From TrEMBL:
Designated gene of the protein: aroB
Domain 3-dehydroquinate synthase C-terminal residues, every copy: 184-326
Natural source organism: Parablautia intestinalis
GO cellular component, one term: cytoplasm
Protein name: 3-dehydroquinate synthase
PANTHER family in UniProt: 3-DEHYDROQUINATE SYNTHASE
Annotated NAD(+) binding sites: G108, V109, V110, G111, D112, T132, T133, K145, K154
Amino acid sequence: MDSRLNILYNKKPCYDIVFSADFQRLIHELKGLEIESRRVCVVTDSHVASLYGDQIMDLLEGECKEKALFSFPAGEENKTLSTVKDIYTFLIEKKFDRKDLLLALGGGVVGDITGFVAATYLRGIDFVQIPTTLLAQADSSIGGKTGVDFDGYKNMVGAFYMPKLVYMNVSVLKTLDGRQFYSGFAEIMKHGLIKDGIFYEWLLENMYEICDRNVDIMQEMVERSCKIKKLVVEKDPTEKGERALLNFGHTIGHAIEKSKNFTLTHGECVALGAVAAAFISWKHSWLSMEEYYEIRDMFVPFNLPISIEDIDPQEILKLTKSDKKMENGSIKFILLKKVGKAVIDRNVSDEDILNALSEIHYVEDGE
Ligand SMILES: O=C(O)C(=O)C[C@@H](O)[C@H](O)[C@H](O)COP(=O)(O)O
């Protein structure tokens, strides 16, 4: 069943999220943005282009002034300024002006890059998010964080820039590659852990239906996840304070992502970072041992790692300190006071981090 949610920005209605089980309503929604008088460029990656590129281009036929599709090679390694430059060149060649529109069709990488191009091309043109992965639907397409990685550092260059619409076809998740599906689950679980213990319990209870990808359950899960994110980003759209809670699992997660040269998915790294942060929360006596183990073990049925081989803890510690979350020389670490309530803690020591890294560092017997 189609439903929608409006996101406020500075307390005013800003954009709608439409939840649907197909792409049929997309053109109707885009008509609300007057596409008949605009050029529309679909920005996507090589993988999503082969799955949905033709379908979206067919839907646009005769509905807008002119249509174009730009596709770049899939993968986090292409979330760079070089891809941004290629998109600018394409838009200039196609004579896109400020009244035109970009559609970001794909996962988090496509959404982040397209949003960044939209924020900067001609000092800002409109864009729409059409997220096609669980991670993008439940998390990254909402809240206006856009950007690229720089020199291997995650999301180092970017802008807060709001889409005009987010259109989610939840049924695309049915055929999403398993690793990508589970990667998104890490962010959903994060939402429960930081803000909503009841949602966390619901995820525990519905674990098997989620793994079976029942469309109704997936829609409910994505909608509930988006509602949690809505509450956080509406209060603090540009991360002056509380929005940093959404970084639970990311401080160590981003460091692992970089140290492993982006060979693990973002969600896999967030799961490892979340286990480490939950471990520190237990050591601070905020979580009980049972709660810590329950959180850790909940990642397992979703094929998410809870330990990792071949890491250099000192390197991860160093990378953790070069993440964007440093402020006046201390790390803004996100910990759990209890399940459903996260806090920003600036007193996490190097020793706390190294202990947490040894908890998630898998070392074979005899090594
Ligand atoms: O929207 C946010 O705010 C988030 O922190 C969501 C995160 O899950 C997401 O990965 C985000 O891109 C990380 O933000 P960053 O500022 O740490 O790069």
